[in-house]
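Lab meeting notes turned into a lecture example. A postdoc, R.K., suggested we walk through two folding results consecutively so the class can see how the record format repeats. The first protein's sequence and structure tokens come next.
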Amino acid sequence: MTSSASSLTTHGTVLADHLVTNRSTVANIALIGAGAATVALLAQVEIPMWPVPITGQTLGVMLVGATLGAWRGAAALLTYLVAGLAGLPVFAGLTGGIASVAKPSFGFIIGFVFAAALIGWLAQRNWDRRPLLSLVAFFGASLVPFVFGVPYM
């Protein structure tokens, strides 16, 4: 197999596609739920600061997006956002609820959806498999929440 043929067969796949070969709706829902749970857990790793804490959420967003790909990564973060708004204590400090919209940090949570989609899209194009491109991809996707979060504050 030539390198271009090999590239074509792996293009568009991410780690989740290799670990879970069953691409059923149930498998996708499970992956999306696991992604949302991962971010919820990492949100509890927190360094209190004002006006927003530093949390493990951004790491979780990058891991989930790169592992699940663009659409499942974005769906996982949208699930995380909706679960928090519904009152589940998934946001930093085990908080949640509709009042979270009034917090200065909520703009970052909105940005997480787009950051996961971006890093997932780049991972599907193999940027995560090349050191320099990987650095650019993860740095760029890490800036996306700030595009939403800073104006929201």
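The second example is placed directly after the first for contrast:
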Amino acid sequence: MSGMNAWILDFGMNYKAAVGGRELFHLIDVPVTFDVPHAPWYCRKVVSWQGRLLPVMDIAARLSRLEQEIKFIAVVGYQNNRGEQPEYAALQLDAPPRQVSVTDDQACDLPENSSGWEQISIACFEYQGEVFPVLGLNKLFNAKPVLASVQ
């Protein structure tokens, strides 16, 4: 059985996930970003790419609430509905992505302690002893922010 291509993304702080082989469009290795006032803690920057301002999501900050320095930005594309023009956004990375080949045999469940991943992932697979959630990009970028309850 031949595998599907995926990109493994390292968000830093031991947070890693994957996107489909056709969802990663560009890697920016010296990103210039701009602050967005009043934006959620995990998406406080935008980057200019091909005449568009793209939101830059920090997955590690979203899951841990700890912000970190931007080293790389991955421009990703997704469709909200089949046949529509793609939407573009950006993910903050700690290291360059790596491409792998994945088969259905590698599918697995999210780990028990996967707090936060279930809200933004659509699948999960095991590769070389590590478990990688597969991001649902339309789910991730169209989700309403999860706000901590005030007590």
